[in-house]
Amino acid sequence: MWAGAVVKAFDQFAVGHGIDEEDVEQQIRDDFPWHQPHAPHPHLSTPEAWWAHVARLLTTCMKRLGFDNENSTELAQAARFRFIDPSSFRVFEDTRGTLEAVTANG
Q1: What is the pLDDT of residue 89?
Q2: Are the C-beta atoms of residues 65 and 24 closer than 8 Å to each other?
Q3: Are 57 and 103 in contact (CB under 8 A)?
Q4: Nearest CA to 1 among 40, 43, 42, 32?
Q5: How far is CA 72 from the centre of its chain?
Q6: pLDDT, tens digit, for every residue of 47-64?
Q7: CA 45: distance to chain centroid?
Q8: What's the number of CA atoms in the CB half-sphere (13 Å) around residue 59?
Q9: pLDDT tens track for 18-43
Q10: How far is CA 76 from CA 7, 9, 15, 95, in A?
Q11: pLDDT tens digit string along 60-101?
């Protein structure tokens, strides 16, 4: 999902970029905290800390893909908003019943 969000940001702000999700995945495959499950991450325990970390990670990804500092920061922010956009998600049919039951029970 992160790679898709990055590519969508590129599509909007860097038309004709020629970068695909696999290119992005190669750049971020070891950078997220879940890639190091053995290491504690208490420094990422607030939303602000988490998103600051993700912004640095995505900015670094953009730079690795050839964008300059200013564009990398802007593209990282755009990728974040693509990622959290509800239209980026879908409900799988096999989960619909469970989600409806949980919603009904508050």
Answers
A1: 84
A2: yes
A3: no
A4: 32
A5: 14
A6: 999 989 999 999 999 899
A7: 17
A8: 13
A9: 999 999 999 888 888 888 899 999 99
A10: 11, 8, 16, 31
A11: 998 999 988 888 889 889 999 888 889 888 889 999 999 999
**Which whole-number Å values give the CA distances from 64 to 48, 58, 60, 69, 80, in the listed order?**
24, 10, 6, 11, 18
Amino acid at 77: Q
Q: Residue 71 and residue 53: Cα distance in Å, rounded? A: 18
Phi-psi region of 90 (alpha: psi -120 to 50; beta: other; left: phi over 0): beta
pTM of the model: 0.74
Nearest in space to 56 (alpha carbons), one of 80, 38, 85: 80
CA separation (Å) from 14 to 30, 37, 78?
A: 25, 34, 11
On the 0-12 / 13-18 / 19+ scale of CB atoms within 10 A, 106 is exposed
Q: Are 44 and 53 in contact (CB under 8 A)?
A: yes
